[in-house]
Amino acid sequence: MKRAMSAEAKAARAKQIMDAAADMLLSTDYRHLKMSSIAKAVGISNGLIFKYFKTKETLFLSLLWREYEKRLDYLEAETEKTAFRDFSDVQELLLSELEHLLYQNPVYIKLESMRSIILEKNADTQLLLKMKEKFYGRVNAWSRKFSGSGIISQGEILDIFFAEIGIITGCYLQNAILNDARNIISQDRDNMPEISETDFREEILNRMKYYLQGYKQNMDN
Asked: What domain of life is recorded for the organism (predicted)?
């Protein structure tokens, strides 16, 4: 009789699958990623991978939760060591964290942009509910710590945090649409206008800066 895997061994295998999925996502469009390819990269059968993750969306949603945890760990650590004096310190921390996210964690950026329109559509509903409960619990705990400075309320920092997610998603999807358009244009250069290239990461940072400036003005009024 085949010996059952321990909980630790199962967790290690699930991590191995998520690590492989993260690596492949950086070089392959999500639409073209196959569970069979991820299974092959890990060295397991096509059937076994579905014992760990019921659907492709469930796998990448689990990966997104792992990236959420990394992000919130970083935010909590930066918040605890920052002595807030005014809103400019709040703005500096948020923009610094966003820049870190954009340039050091491309997996999070790609997954966040797909969360509501792709990943949540065919994910395991129990996992999705559990993930959202954990996510909002951690975000609320962090925002309470942030509001302890007295400079900004918990509701205000939550407004900013979720607006930032919207900016990330919007800019990334806009960039993806433009890239598709450029690919079409490259095949018919004689009859199509040229579309200039932009760095979507800089676009996200700039939009967030303008958003924070506007938010500060509204707070002062």
From this structure: Bacteria
Give the pLDDT confidence of 170-216 residue by residue, as tens digits: 988 887 777 666 665 566 555 544 444 457 889 999 999 999 999 99
- Per the listing, tokens 């073209």 go with 32
Counting Cα atoms < 13 Å in the Cβ hemisphere of 81 gives 6
Mind listing the pLDDT tens digit for each residue in 144-167? 999 988 999 999 999 999 999 999
Distance between CA 102 and CA 194 in Å, rounded?
27
Provide the CATH number for the domain around residue 38: 1.10.10
Residues 87 and 194 in one domain: yes
* Longest pairwise C-alpha distance within the chain: 72
Contacts of 174 (CB under 8 A, 6+ apart): 200, 203
Which token pair is 2?
């085949």
Residues 3 and 71 in one domain: no
How far, in Å, CA of 58 to CA of 125, rounded?
A: 9
Q: Look up the domain containing 31 and give its range.
A: 1-52
